[in-house]
Backbone:
């Protein structure tokens, strides 16, 4: 039996309590997360942190940093880069005179200036020897720049490179607190430095490199190493000069760098000594054009006690990396932003415990998906999922904006999505399997039904074959006109009839109706008919009919645990005299019809239906048929034939039909007329019961 | 079909049937009918006043329960069948083996003997 649950409002997801794949998968994912093995997770995390910053960018509170910008306008005014170092010296001097806290120069000058007076002089063909000497006695541009650099708190930077490259490095002393940070920090094999003359002139030495992740600068090192030498970043070194501290410090433990500092200032960092840059939006107020500085067109208070960065924005000179906010800014602005965050104490930190918190969130979400969601009703699932997603997002954002702590919520989201999709896919596959199962069941049932149908048709053929064709049986008997028909309502029926010659002159006939319908009635019909015929044929020819029926009744009733019974009209007609003896065992009284006469009835009842009481003695009755009388025996399938309105054909209607019988009619004609009338009365209604009719007429001896 | 049992005095059970007693009707009541007649009552009256139609399967149902009652020595009476049902009982000869009463007092008298 197929039971389809329709309108099931429970989740389509099935609980995984029994399965172990998902919980194990969850634990593996957690482990991978803690070990940092999940592919693409870093990119996802970067995107998550970018998103925080895009939603709530840092506000620029104080403006400690000013950028002197060698921009397009400056290049137009003073010629293409490289400028003579004397020009750069002039620019730095102008700034230096305004008393800045520190000047950071985001420019590397690895070769001597080629437009120093001496160098230029040697390029002039046929130059007067004295003039050349005079030119070469002038200070070179590099010397001039070095003098200026020496006069003010300036910082130069080097670029770390990942190849061995001869370099000479002048560095700031570093004070190490705790463990050795060297293994943790970003380490370059070589460095591109400015010429020694300039390096020796400045007070601050820094490293300018920052790694760019797919065009986005998210983290910048506050400390990095070239070989074994640790260098502070440009911003840290500028802060050191501003504070006036002799050294910068790096604090580390076994897990790596904890922070860097100068003087009283401590800046927490990631384990590799970098910080996540907390970006505010690009702000032109940070910039002042080098042209204006060189032309003296600025307010000196602009640089007073400020951290001044000198760098390029001129096109073609520098790359414009992206910030986390998706803006493309010159690299020098990133230095300015770092200085602002340090100054405003709004540096971002991703604490060492962050992966544990993220792992915890993943565990909670994972358990929710695996164990809770499948047990919830469908309409409750979606709000819960939305709520969890919102809570997580809100928590991440609050931690970022309030506490400047970076917790990655994208990884838990990803896990959540992966598990949810896995669950849905599982549910779908199960559903498909179920549908396939149902289709299979249906096909099997169809096949079974067809098989049963076939069996039933065979049973019907068998049943119809054991009731005789009167035309064949009495072919050679002119004294008798007997017609009979039987039409089961279902495939097989519980009605029966039989008729045969008992001897040369006597006809035995029976019509019966087993209670109920269908297969059990049909089986009982076969037993009853067979036993009756057998007993009739083997009994003493002189036995009284009632006694014969009583014997049959005993035999049939003997094995009848289901308490089925059969009503029967049984008769023997003597063809010599028209003498009819009959037994009516609970059957509809048959009609007696003669043309022009009122319909009569063989009213006598011999007793209850056969198989009810095994010791019942059935009474025998007599009637003498005249040659123009028809004996019409039928089952209640005729009288109780119903039309579509459940109205019954009824005995009265049957009597009217047989009454209108014509002179010339024979048994078969009368039977067909009754059948036709019944069928037209029923119309399109399905027959509720088997239809059986037998009509007998005695033609007399002559 | 509906069926309910009504305890009368002195161990007599009156079973009230209502509805058409055809194949579907009998299916609805036969389990309950069997339970009621399977009790220890010395007499059972089956009130058929509310049964407008009875087919041969209904006869079988009446007979099965009559046998169950008589097997333990109890009395079984059919009370007040409607004319159509009464004629079915007569035609089938059931009235010869089962008491059919048209009067309540008479029926009560028969089962209380």
Residues:
């Amino acid at each position: 039996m197929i039971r389809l649950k329709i309108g099931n409002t429970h989740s389509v997801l099935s609980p995984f309590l029994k399965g172990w794949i998902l919980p194990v998968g969850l634990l593996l994912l957690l482990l991978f997360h803690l070990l940092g093995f999940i592919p693409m997770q870093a990119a996802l995390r970067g995107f998550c942190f970018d998103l925080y910053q895009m939603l709530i960018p840092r506000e620029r509170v104080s403006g400690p940093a000013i950028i002197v910008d060698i921009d397009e306008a400056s290049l137009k005014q003073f010629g293409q880069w490289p400028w003579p170092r004397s020009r750069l010296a002039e620019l730095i001097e102008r700034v230096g005179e305004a008393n800045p806290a520190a000047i950071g120069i985001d420019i590397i000058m690895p070769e001597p200036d080629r437009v120093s007076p001496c160098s230029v002089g040697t390029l002039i063909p046929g130059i007067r020897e004295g003039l050349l000497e005079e030119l070469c006695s002038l200070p070179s541009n590099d010397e001039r720049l070095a003098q200026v650099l020496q006069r003010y708190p300036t910082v130069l930077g080097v670029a770390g490179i990942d190849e061995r490259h001869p370099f000479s490095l002048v560095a700031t002393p570093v004070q190490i607190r705790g463990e050795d940070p060297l293994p943790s920090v970003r380490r370059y094999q070589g460095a591109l430095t400015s010429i020694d003359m300039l390096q020796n002139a400045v007070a601050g030495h820094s490293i300018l490199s920052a790694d760019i992740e797919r065009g986005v600068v998210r983290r910048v090192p506050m400390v990095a190493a070239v070989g074994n030498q640790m260098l502070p970043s440009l911003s840290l070194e500028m802060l050191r000069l501003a504070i006036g501290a002799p050294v910068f410090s790096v604090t580390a433990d076994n897990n790596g760098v904890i922070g860097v500092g100068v003087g009283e200032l401590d800046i927490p960092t990631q384990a590799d000594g970098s910080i996540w840059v907390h970006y505010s939006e690009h702000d032109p107020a940070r910039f002042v054009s080098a042209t204006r500085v060189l032309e003296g067109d600025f307010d000196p208070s602009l640089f007073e006690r400020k951290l001044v960065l000198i760098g390029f924005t001129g096109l073609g000179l520098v790359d414009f990396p992206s910030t986390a906010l998706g803006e493309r800014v010159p690299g020098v602005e990133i230095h300015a932003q770092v200085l602002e965050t340090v100054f405003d104490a709004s540096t971002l930190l991703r604490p060492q415990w962050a992966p544990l918190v993220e792992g915890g969130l993943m565990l909670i979400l994972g358990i929710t998906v695996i164990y809770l969601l499948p047990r919830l009703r469908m309409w409750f699932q979606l709000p819960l999922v939305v709520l969890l997603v919102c809570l997580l997002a809100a928590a991440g954002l609050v931690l970022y904006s309030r506490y400047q702590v970076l917790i990655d919520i994208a990884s838990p989201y990803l896990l959540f999505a992966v598990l949810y999709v896995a669950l849905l896919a599982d549910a779908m596959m199960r559903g498909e399997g179920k549908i396939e199962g149902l289709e299979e069941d249906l096909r099997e049932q169809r096949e079974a039904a067809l098989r049963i149908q076939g069996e039933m048709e065979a049973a019907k053929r068998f049943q119809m074959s054991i009731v005789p064709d009167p035309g064949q049986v009495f072919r050679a008997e002119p004294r008798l006109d007997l017609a009979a028909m039987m039409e089961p309502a279902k495939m097989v029926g519980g009605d029966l009839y039989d008729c045969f010659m008992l001897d040369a002159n006597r006809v035995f006939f029976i019509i019966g109706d087993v209670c109920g319908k269908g297969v059990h009635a049909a089986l009982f019909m076969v037993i009853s008919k067979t036993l009756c015929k057998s007993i009739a044929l083997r009994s003493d020819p002189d036995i009284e009919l009632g006694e014969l029926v009583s014997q049959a009744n005993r035999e049939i009733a003997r094995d009848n645990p289901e308490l089925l019974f059969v009503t029967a009209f049984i008769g023997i007609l003597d063809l010599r005299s028209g003498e009819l003896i009959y037994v009516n065992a609970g059957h509809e009284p048959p009609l007696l019809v003669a043309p022009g006469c009122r319909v009569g009835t063989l009213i006598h009842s011999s007793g209850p239906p056969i198989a009810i009481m095994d010791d019942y003695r059935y009474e025998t009755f007599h009637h003498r048929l005249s040659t123009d009388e028809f004996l019409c025996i039928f089952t209640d399938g005729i009288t109780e034939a119903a039309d579509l309105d459940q109205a019954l054909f009824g005995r009265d209607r049957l009597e009217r039909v047989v009454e209108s019988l014509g002179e010339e009619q024979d048994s078969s004609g009368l039977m067909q007329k009754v059948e036709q009338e019944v069928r037209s009365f029923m119309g399109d209604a399905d027959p509720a019961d088997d239809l059986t009719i037998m009509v007998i007429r005695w033609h007399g001896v002559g | 079909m509906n069926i309910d049992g009504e305890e009368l005095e002195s161990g007599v059970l009156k079973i009230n049937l209502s509805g058409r007693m055809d194949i579907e009707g009998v299916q609805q009541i036969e389990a309950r009918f069997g339970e009621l007649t399977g009790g220890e009552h010395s007499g059972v009256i089956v009130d058929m006043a509310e049964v407008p139609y009875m087919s041969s399967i209904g006869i079988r149902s009446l007979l099965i329960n009559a046998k169950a009652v008589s097997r333990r020595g109890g009395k079984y009476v059919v009370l007040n069948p409607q004319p159509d049902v009464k004629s079915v009982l007569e035609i089938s000869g059931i009235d010869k083996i089962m008491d059919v009463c048209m009067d309540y007092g008479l029926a009560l008298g028969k089962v209380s003997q």
The domain at 469-698 of chain A is CATH 3.60.40.10 (Phosphatase 2c; domain 1). The mean pLDDT of chain A is 87.
